[in-house]
Every structure is written in C-alpha cells, then in structure tokens.
Amino acid sequence: MAKTKTQFAELDPVWNQIRTEAEDAVEKEPLLGGLIHSSILHHETIENALAYRTSLKLASGEMSEQLIREICDAAYSDDPALALAARADIAAVYDRDPACHRFLQPLMFFKGFQALQSYRVAHWLWQQGRRDMAYFFQMRISEQFGVDIHPAARIGKGIMIDHAHSIVIGETAVVGDNVSMLHSVTLGGTGKEEEDRHPKIGDGVLIGAGAKVLGNIHVGHCSRIAAGSVVLHEVPPKSTVAGVPAKVVGEAGCSTPSITMDQLLGTK
C-alpha cells in the first residue's frame, strides 16, 4: 500500500490529495466511513472513482448503476482527457470557491462538479454517435442536479459552476477554459433556428448569477458578465458588461476575472 501511495503522489497529486483527505474525513466522521470508502478509498484511480460516483448519481429504475458504470469506464478508458479535465475542474473549484476547503469536496458533495463530469461522459457518447444514450444522460443530469447541458455543447477544462442550480447550456454553445459561472446562468438561443445558435464563451470569463447570454455571439476572453444581465451582443475581451440588455460598463478589472471572482462593478 505504501508503494501505491508513493506512486499516486508522484504521478497523480490531485488523486493522492483526495485520498489523504478521505482518510482524514473517515477518522473525523466515522458515520461517513462506508460512503467515503465506497466512493474514494476503494478505488485505485480517480477515473474509477469518477465512474463510480457518476453511476451512483445517474442510476434509476430505467438504467441500472452497473450499466452506467460500464459506460463511464469505457469513456475514461477511451479518452484520458476526460479525467484530466476533471482534475483541472477540481483544482478550479478549490482555488475559486471560498466554501471549498478540500479537494475531496467537489467529488463527494458539489453538484456543479458532479453534473459537469456527467456531462463530459455524455459528450463522449455524443461524439461516439450514441446520441440516444447521450440524451438519456442529459435527462438524468437535469433531473438529478438541476443542470441542463446539451451533450453536443463543447466545454473546456478548469471550469467552476458555483451552486449550479438552473444552469442551461445549449447544443451549439462553446465554453472555453478556466471559466467560472454562478447559478441560474443560461447560454441559450434566440429562436427556432437549427444552425449555430448559441454563445461562444472565451477563456477566463466570469458569468454572474442569473445572467443570460443569448444567440450566436462571442464573449471575449477574460471578460465579466454582471449578475442578472441579458447579453444579446458581442462582448469585447477584458471588459465588463451589465444590464438588460447588457452594455459595456468598463474594463474587466483584472487579467483573470474568473479566478479572482471579483463581481463588484466599481473595480477598474
């Protein structure tokens, strides 16, 4: 066991940290021992743990935990980028969410992270041509987490979805790397057109709670969208937009708004 832990530390520091925190959590709260052992300590890799947690959450009377687990295992085996993105997402939540004090928390308790990892498997299914199964995953993610992400949407890594209630991301939406968004965000269309109809969010963007970004528009890198805004037009890079409809009200205030999470419009 000691040798395995050393290998984890050298090859996968995120997973090693999660396991260390899990052991500490069991010691402090023995009543959670069974849950934490089955979810974390029973598994040798983060891929196995992610597949287990996803299957546990998405299983229902319509689709067994075992079948969903097999799908997730196949996805992580076929595409190593899925677990790499999950590691980046965990680090993002830990760095940006003041309520997150351990790497363990997103994997065990945060529905934004769990919904995002479930979407990543659904997106893999979509790319494999397994559209109906991808739709099934989308349905269960929406039912379980209150997060509705079309499996065709493209989402980068290092994503934090804080609180993650009533998130909607449409079919042709694109979300870059290191984006942060709060609850009730919509990346939607503006009509019934079937072509490219959803927003393209650049890297490092911060999207405030309740913001709606509608149509095939680009939101520039490292910009901020204020809470409650309705964005209908292009957003220049490194700028702040606010209002209904949203207008540019200043610069982004810093080079990395999605990391600093500063939502005060007075910041220059």
UniProtKB/TrEMBL annotation:
InterPro entries: Hexapep, Hexapep_transf_CS, LbH_SAT, Ser_AcTrfase_N, Ser_AcTrfase_N_sf, Ser_O-AcTrfase, Serine_acetyltransferase, Trimer_LpxA-like_sf. CDD domains: LbH_SAT (cd03354). Keywords: Acyltransferase, Amino-acid biosynthesis, Repeat, Transferase. Gene3D superfamilies: Hexapeptide repeat proteins, serine acetyltransferase, domain 1. It catalyses: L-serine + acetyl-CoA = O-acetyl-L-serine + CoA. Pathway: Amino-acid biosynthesis; L-cysteine biosynthesis; L-cysteine from L-serine: step 1/2. Residues 14-118 form the Serine acetyltransferase N-terminal domain. One of its GO terms (molecular function) is serine O-acetyltransferase activity. Its EC number is 2.3.1.30. GO terms for biological process: cysteine biosynthetic process from serine. This is Serine acetyltransferase. It comes from Thalassovita gelatinovora (Thalassobius gelatinovorus).
